[in-house]
Design a protein that fits this description.
alpha/beta; Rossmann fold; 7-stranded mixed beta sheet
């Protein structure tokens, strides 16, 4: 079983914000793979299950708000006895230019509260990640306001291509090691 965790905040007011690009990536994958969302109480998340290329796939959108994303990850792991090495976390990254994705299998939270929460609840910094670039704001612009703002109009036009590349990396990861996926999609 491969499981993908998209980070974001629940609620319509956050739907098109930069901080919700992890949710957007999972919504795109769910539509492409024919996976429906259902509430899952034990993991405090919306969960979608399906079979893709002969592999059981679970998509998870924590409904705890970003800063408590680790609660959903831990709840899912405990309920399903899921292996951490089979998880891929998708989230917004200020240090990756908009339009690019960067894959990593370990590292610090880098100031991202959702990742900080996952590290706290799993006890490790070693887990697979697809960082979706949102770029940094201009100097002096408040980071919290920036990530909680909607994408600019021109960014929103380019976003489908970014989400498609993210989806391609997710699909590739189903039948390849994460190291192979990194080699293909970090180039």
């Amino acid at each position: 079983m491969k499981w993908f965790v998209g980070l974001g905040n629940p609620g319509n007011q956050y739907e098109k914000t930069r901080h919700n690009v992890g949710f957007m990536a999972l919504d795109r994958a769910a539509a492409e793979w024919g996976i429906a969302w259902k509430p899952h109480g034990k993991s405090k998340a919306l969960v979608g299950e399906g079979n893709v290329q002969g592999e059981k796939v679970v998509l998870i959108k924590p409904q705890t708000y970003m800063n408590l994303s680790g609660e959903s990850v831990r709840g899912f792991m405990d309920f399903y006895k899921a292996k951490l090495e089979d998880m891929v976390v998708l989230y917004d990254d200020l240090d990756t230019p908009f339009g690019q994705i960067r894959l990593r299998y370990q590292g610090s939270a880098g100031g991202h509260n959702g990742i900080k929460s996952i590290i706290a609840h799993t006890g490790t910094q070693t887990f697979n990640r697809i960082r979706i670039g949102i770029s940094r704001p201009q100097p002096g612009f408040d980071i919290a306001n920036y990530v909680l703002a909607d994408f600019r109009k021109e960014e929103f036009k380019e976003l489908p291509a970014v989400l498609e590349r993210t989806g391609d990396a997710m699909t590739f990861a189903l039948s390849h090691t994460f190291e192979q996926t990194m080699a293909k999609y970090n180039g």
